[in-house]
Design a protein that fits this description.
With 61 residues, the protein is mainly α. It is built from 3 helices and no strands.
């Protein structure tokens, strides 16, 4: 991702990239229909949740 890349640029690049997971593609398409502030807040919460999960798995907890 570059600093001059727009939302649409990155979205289109991700959706056209064969290595983008089905789950991420679906999430991008679903979030497109949501309020962007709500979608961002939910995404940030998911990052926190998944970081905790990764840490627990890596630490054997």
């Amino acid at each position: 991702m570059s600093l001059d890349e727009t939302y649409d640029d990155l979205k289109n690049r991700l959706l056209s990239d064969p290595s983008t997971s089905f789950t991420l593609r679906k999430r991008i398409e679903e979030d497109e229909r949501r309020d962007p502030v709500d979608a961002c807040a939910d995404a940030e919460m998911l990052v926190c949740l998944h970081e905790l999960r990764c840490n627990a798995v890596l630490n054997g907890s």
